[in-house]
């Protein structure tokens, strides 16, 4: 063969690694079901997405704008694109799976302006079997050392008129708690902020959830409907509404993620957010201990009348510590008593005063004595702290916590996700890791897969949850069933689980001490499996659990998982989910206000015979929501469970191998 022809063939074989970008650039998922196509025109960059050849979004824009030179769309040209197939195997300490295999096709497309400032950026796209992600990568360039990003107005020009399930927010300052709006895209209120993830359901059964991953040194993102198209907006910096991100180059945006499947359960099973997150930054993770925890604030700090001088003191806290030791509960949370924090504070209503000091306990509470006594009983002590009391004294406070032997803390009342707050939260996590402390964020924005990067974050709130039962009735089974299909898609959520005074809507009443919860007790038990949280609350008072059916399940249910499978689900109506820990499986099912019968096969089990402990709604649970029935029987992979769920009901099953 002539050398010229041989060299030509060699060049031809190398071309797949470089996609010439004169026309549209296309990239597909490994299973070929998802296709992402990127193009340019006079208005800039735009893309389309198909799933199984069905057009989901067309002529959707990628728009990022800067104070230095305005929107990035000045006569753009695409350089040759670099493509690659990426595979990775990694482990998670917390999450829906302990071992994850990630596989995607990636393209990096350099884009340059041919006029104006002639700025450069790269568009990086990754297409997985369960979704698409893209981000902006801003390289260092001679005439631009830093940028002020004024916004990202990316668009999602969805076809048809999909159903929308979204949390509408009044502004960017938010605890991210509320009741979800359910409508269609055409009827969705225009120009109002939507928290992410947002779920879109198409008429042919395809689902898309839009959210973001790997949020670092950047502003949180929201969605709005503007001019009948879904667009993105970034959270502004405090006092600088026109500036969203200040960045030194090189810099990059978080990933803009579309989780896609025609099976809604695949979105819940997906690990796409942790696939996109940075690897673990903590070298020694041996001290990170997921588990369950008390939270006496929720129940009103109830203690028996026999307790001598209840309050912010050793005796009251040891009452809860002893309860934990008897019942396999990992942590006791020291929060407050009599509406005053456990730490020194001269502010009111839990807000920090000028002399607030979370490194000093109130008089009468010897924190060293409490931590030492709890440790002897195998129980860890954790605390609640207001973010704005903690942050000014971060290192000092965490050093003191490590000295005392505190294991972690709830950090509360951030209520922001601008770039400054995002960076401060990461600073808290890094400092906490240095002092071997776990973190639980409350009053916080959604997760973005960073439980992989900072596994000492065990959970975060950002969800309307059972704490609201102390003062209102908005948290219903209908609200509960929205969470798996929206907020849970982003990751762990703390929901204040464990209330053991279940009530029907007719019997429910609000009370600050000993609150009630709506839905059946089996619904509450099911939430421990349906939701993801590495720090499950057992938030009622000890005597509320004594001798009560179902409490034995709370003693044994894990808070992290090796495997997750959604057995049956319909958005806003019901879900049945199976999670594995070691050789044990746990199934949780919940429904909305409607009663329901689910037939669930156990074909995911191995060849062994299993014992099944089944907790079901009692026949009269529609009248007395605390009634349940427990059954124990042998099952195998041929077994079908017939689940009968009461209105607002649920069921849980613990499956363990019957070893002969």
UniProtKB/TrEMBL annotation:
GO terms for molecular function: carbohydrate binding; hydrolase activity, acting on glycosyl bonds. Pfam families: GH97_C, GH97_N, Glyco_hydro_97. Residues 27-279 form the Glycosyl-hydrolase 97 N-terminal domain. Residues 297-462 form the Glycosyl-hydrolase 97 catalytic domain. InterPro entries: Aldolase_TIM, GH, GH-type_carb-bd, GH97_C, GH97_catalytic, GH97_N, Glyco_hydro_b, Glycosyl_hydrolase_97. Signal peptide: none annotated. Keywords: Calcium, Glycosidase, Hydrolase. Its cofactor is Ca(2+). Residues 560-655 form the Glycosyl-hydrolase 97 C-terminal oligomerisation domain. PANTHER family: GLUCAN 1,4-ALPHA-GLUCOSIDASE SUSB-RELATED, RETAINING ALPHA-GALACTOSIDASE. Monomer. This is Glycoside hydrolase family 97 protein. It comes from Mucilaginibacter terrigena.
């Amino acid at each position: 063969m002539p050398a010229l022809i041989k060299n030509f063939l060699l060049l031809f074989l190398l071309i797949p690694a470089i996609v010439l970008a004169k026309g549209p650039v296309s990239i597909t998922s490994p299973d070929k079901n998802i296709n992402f196509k990127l193009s340019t025109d006079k208005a800039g960059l735009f893309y389309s997405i198909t799933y199984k050849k069905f057009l989901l979004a067309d002529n959707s824009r990628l728009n990022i704008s800067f104070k230095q030179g305005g929107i990035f769309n000045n006569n753009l040209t695409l350089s040759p694109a670099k493509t690659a197939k990426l595979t990775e195997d990694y482990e998670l300490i917390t999450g829906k799976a302990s071992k994850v295999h990630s596989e995607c096709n990636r393209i990096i497309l350099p884009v340059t302006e041919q006029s104006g400032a002639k700025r450069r950026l790269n568009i990086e796209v990754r297409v997985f079997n369960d979704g698409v992600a893209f981000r902006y990568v801003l390289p260092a360039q001679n005439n631009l050392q830093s940028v002020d990003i004024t916004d990202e107005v990316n668009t999602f020009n969805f076809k048809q008129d999909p159903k929308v399930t979204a949390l509408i927010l009044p502004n960017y300052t938010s605890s991210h708690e509320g009741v979800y709006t359910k409508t269609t895209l055409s009827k969705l209120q225009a120009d109002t902020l939507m928290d992410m993830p947002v779920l879109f359901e198409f008429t042919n059964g395809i689902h898309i959830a839009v959210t973001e991953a790997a949020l670092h040194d950047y502003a949180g993102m929201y969605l709005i409907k503007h001019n009948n198209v879904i667009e993105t907006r970034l959270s502004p910096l405090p006092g600088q509404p026109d500036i969203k991100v200040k960045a030194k180059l090189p810099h990059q945006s978080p990933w803009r993620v579309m989780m896609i499947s025609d099976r809604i359960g695949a979105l819940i099973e997906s690990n796409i957010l942790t696939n996109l997150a940075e690897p673990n930054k903590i070298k020694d993770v041996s001290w990170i201990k997921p588990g369950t925890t008390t939270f006496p604030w929720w129940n009103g700090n109830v203690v028996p009348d026999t307790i001598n001088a209840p309050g912010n003191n050793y005796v009251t806290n040891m009452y809860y510590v002893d309860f934990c030791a008897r019942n396999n509960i990992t942590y006791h949370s020291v929060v407050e008593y009599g509406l005053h924090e456990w730490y020194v504070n001269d502010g009111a209503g839990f807000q920090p005063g000028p002399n607030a000091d979370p490194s000093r306990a109130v008089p009468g509470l010897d924190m060293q004595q409490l931590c030492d006594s709890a440790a002897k009983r195998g129980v860890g002590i954790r605390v609640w702290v207001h973010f704005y009391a903690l942050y000014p004294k971060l290192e000092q406070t965490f050093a003191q916590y490590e000295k005392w032997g505190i294991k972690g803390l709830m950090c509360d009342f951030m209520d922001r996700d601008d770039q400054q707050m995002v960076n401060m939260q990461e600073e808290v996590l890094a400092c906490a890791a240095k002092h071997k402390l776990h973190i639980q964020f409350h009053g916080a924005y959604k997760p973005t897969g960073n439980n992989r990067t900072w596994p000492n974050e065990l959970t975060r709130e950002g969800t309307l949850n059972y704490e609201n039962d102390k003062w209102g009735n908005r948290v219903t089974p209908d609200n509960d069933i929205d969470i798996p299909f929206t907020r849970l898609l982003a990751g762990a959520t703390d929901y204040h689980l464990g209330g053991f005074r279940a009530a029907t809507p007719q019997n429910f009443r609000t009370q600050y001490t000993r609150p009630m919860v709506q839905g059946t007790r089996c619904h509450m038990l099911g939430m421990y499996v349906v939701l993801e949280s590495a720090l499950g609350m057992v938030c009622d008072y000890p005597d509320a659990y004594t001798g009560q059916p179902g409490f034995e399940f709370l003693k044994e249910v894990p808070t992290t998982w090796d495997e997750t499978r959604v057995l049956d689900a319909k958005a806003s109506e019901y879900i049945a989910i199976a999670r594995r820990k070691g050789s044990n499986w746990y199934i949780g099912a919940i429904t909305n206000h409607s009663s329901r019968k689910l037939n669930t096969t156990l074909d995911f089990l191995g060849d062994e015979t299993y014992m099944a402990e089944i907790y079901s709604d009692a026949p009269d649970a529609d009248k007395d929501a605390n009634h349940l029935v427990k059954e124990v029987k042998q099952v195998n992979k041929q077994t079908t469970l017939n689940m009968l769920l009461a209105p607002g009901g649920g069921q849980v099953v613990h499956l363990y191998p019957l070893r002969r």
